[in-house]
Amino acid sequence: MRIGELAKRAGMTTETVRFYEQRGLLGNAASERSEGNYRLYTEAAVERLGIITAAKKLGFSLAEILELGRLWQSGQLSPAAKDQVLCQKLLELEHKRQVLEHLQTLIERKLAAVAGSGHELRLVSEPDPPGQRGSDAAPCRNGSSLEPS
């Protein structure tokens, strides 16, 4: 199958497929060429793109996916090692969840403190030019944002 069909079946754009291929994530799933010199992909490419998508959802980086894919394909990972990799990722995700919960609590406290003080709170994506403070503030759901004015 050609790249357009592969992308459609994998639920992504052709640019994403090319990006993954350029980084070696598809392996040899595009080893043949058509008479018109188009790359032809196998069913293995559809499967591999599904694995990449699932691994990304689990929090794996593309570099981790590439390395694990190489080890997995070569048979160098025992079942116990595969379990260890997944358990380690689970621990990393749990740590990130705890950090995010802590940040959420801090923000909620800041919002409550500012709401009680009568000051407005705003989010700022970049510093404002002098004399134009607050021009690019993004409001929170309650109408306030994250920087006291």
TrEMBL record:
The keyword Nucleus does not apply. Keywords: DNA-binding. SMART domains: HTH_MERR. InterPro entries: DNA-bd_dom_put_sf (IPR009061), MerR-type_HTH_dom (IPR000551), MerR_fam (IPR047057). Residues 1-71 form the HTH merR-type domain. Residues 121-149 are annotated as: Disordered. The keyword Transport does not apply. PROSITE patterns: HTH_MERR_2. Pfam families: MerR_1. PANTHER family: HTH-TYPE TRANSCRIPTIONAL REGULATOR ZNTR, REDOX-CYCLING DRUG-SENSING TRANSCRIPTIONAL ACTIVATOR SOXR. This is MerR family transcriptional regulator. It comes from Deinococcus oregonensis.
